[in-house]
Amino acid sequence: PSPCRVAMCVGKCSRIVGPCLLVLGTLSMAANILLLFPGGASKYLVEGHISKHAKAMPGIWGGGIAVLLAATHITAVGWRCAGCSDCGTRCNAFISAVLSKMALLGAAACFVLSGVGLTNGPLCFYNASEHSRGQGTLWGYPFLDGSSREPDARAENYLYDRQMWSICLEPVGIVAWNVGLFSLLLLISATEMVLASLQILNGCLGCLCGFCEGK
């Protein structure tokens, strides 16, 4: 393909990828914020009874801020350069590639931490005597063996057995809340990684050909 055609494709791709990443980054931050407020209640965050992986906020700094920085630049440059003859797009394309690499790393971190949070299960108030050799009710991770810090043999399939979810007494519905939002973060971050990788390639092509369509 001719350099002009490549430049047009690079510009069009930027104007698609940028807004998509803006939406995904915003959704990632919203999902992580909701994880901090189970059932919409703030008292568990105040009391410190929130999953450590939710408090790590990977959806805010990883799938959110890092992605939004790249998305804002990609979107702005993509539209600003539509139809122009010369606007320094090779430099901007290089910057977008660098920011996209940061977005890729942030989304990857979000993906990993969300996966661990989903596997370990939520922090909740549960009856230990019904779950293991422990006694009484306490705050902890009922689907994680406290001694080995690995998934408990009885609870390793909790994602597929909803009857086990009732072990968590408080917050009400915390298992479904945790599973739903961490699964959403996994989906969002996976999509962000694909788009960020595409934009890295797009930015590299932009460095070579530019993406001003009026050349």
Distance between the termini: 15 Å
Order of helices and strands: HHHHHEHEEEEH
Strand count, sense and barrel status of the largest sheet are:
3 strands, antiparallel
Please tally the β strands and state the result.
5
The tally of structural domains comes to 1
Fraction in beta strands = 5-15%
Specify the overall morphology: elongated
Global Rg: 22 Å
| Continuous helix count | 7
Question: Mean of residue pLDDT?
Answer: 82
How are strands sequenced across the largest beta sheet? Answer: 2-1-5
Helix content: 55-70%
Q: Helix- and strand-based class?
A: mainly alpha
Low-pLDDT parts are 1-7
Note down, in words, how this protein is organized.
Keywords: Membrane, Transmembrane, Transmembrane helix. One of its GO terms (cellular component) is membrane. Belongs to the L6 tetraspanin family. It comes from Phalacrocorax carbo. It is found in: Membrane. Helix 1 runs antiparallel to helix 4 (58-80), helix 1 runs antiparallel to helix 7 (174-209) and helix 4 packs antiparallel against helix 5 (89-120). The protein has helices at 3-35, 43-47, 52-55, 58-80, 89-120, 128-131, 174-209; strands at 124-127, 137-140, 144-145, 150-151, 168-170. The chain is mostly helical. The protein has one domain. A hairpin with a 4-residue loop joins strand 3 (144-145) and strand 4 (150-151). The two termini are 15 Å apart. The protein contains seven helices and five strands. The model is unreliable at 1-7 (pLDDT under 50). The longest helix has 36 residues, at 174-209. The strands form two sheets. A three-stranded antiparallel β-sheet has the order 2-1-5. A two-stranded antiparallel ribbon has the order 3-4.
